[in-house]
Amino acid sequence: MPLIGIAKMAAESPVLENKRRVTYLELPAKSFIGACSGKRQIFDWTVNPYRGCEYGCRYCYARYTHEFMELSADDFETRIFAKQWDAAQFRLELRRLAPGDTVAFGTATDCYQPAERRFGLMRRMLEEMHGAVEELVIGITTKSDLVARDVDLLGALARRNDVRVNVTITTHDPALARKLEPFAPSPALRLAAMAKLTAAGVSAGVGVSPVLPLITDTEASLEAVAQAAKAAGARTFWAQPLFLKDSARKVFLPWLEREFPALSTKYAAWYSREAYLKEPYVGWLKERVDRVRQRHGFDERGGHYRPPDWLGPAQMRLFG
Predict the structure, then answer these.
(1) pTM of the model
(2) What is the DSSP string of 104-164?
(3) d(CA 52, CA 63)
(4) pLDDT of 236-267, one tens digit each?
(5) What structural domains does the chain harbor?
(6) Would you report the helix, strand and coil content of the chain in percent, each value rounded to 5?
(7) pLDDT one-digit tens code per residue, 93-119
(8) Which one, 25, 37, 178, 288, has least CB within 10 Å?
(9) Peptide bond between residue 307 and the one before it cis (omega within 30 degrees of 0)
(10) Do 62 and 244 contact (CB within 8 A), yes or no?
């Protein structure tokens, strides 16, 4: 059958650059800001400047999005599509946002992955938002230390909006992190970036997501992440257990068989019919995370926040 829709667009996308293991392509963008809908709606709007992510996280749920383009789960981390930038179109879409709306960046792919150094789409979007939006809840989720590059814009946006940077740290163990997220910045680099953001008055928190049963769900593992997050100035701390869509399961379970063979049978049984774990595990994990959070005085999700008054333009330049 001939390709149609986004699959056809992907097949016709021009190659912008070939790296050792990754190819960058440019994808025409009908829109940059997508409206959320459905029963599991958490945000009003989502923004993903890129399709695909080269971090290679073994558990990544978003691998299925490449299937819409008739590409494989492995292609997700080697064929990265940058949306064709159109500043005028983005400004037009910003007008749809209303005070109080929640706008989430990086819900499907990391908006600060290495492609951002090459294309700068996230930086361009923040520049367009600066001075153009107010009273929004802006959330950014990333594993990248590159987010600290934009501390100037994030600090400025936070004066008129509720800006929250969520740094994902699944484990504080660098060796395990390298196995789980082979091409992502180390936990130490992510924490250093968070410290720079919080020093500049930007609200940041840590998400232990996903938590891997019998691997990273011990109280000691969660405590190590929480302690490091607190030292870096995090305001929030939260966690959620691993869930495995079909495309993620095809990558994760073979990895588990190699790295944790004693657990492979258990995981295969747990995720044989459902992508999500259920009770009693979910409640048990929540109680454990709540204890860790309370010991360190974290909020779960955070609330409305503004940078401290002392952080004016002159101070902001120090962190630029």
Answers:
(1) 0.89
(2) EE-SSS-TTSTHHHHH-HHHHHHHHHTTT--S-EEEEEES-GGGGGGHHHHHHHTTTSEEE
(3) 7
(4) 999 999 999 898 999 999 999 999 999 999 99
(5) 5-318 (3.80.30.30)
(6) 40, 15, 40
(7) 999 999 999 999 998 899 999 999 999
(8) 37
(9) no
(10) no
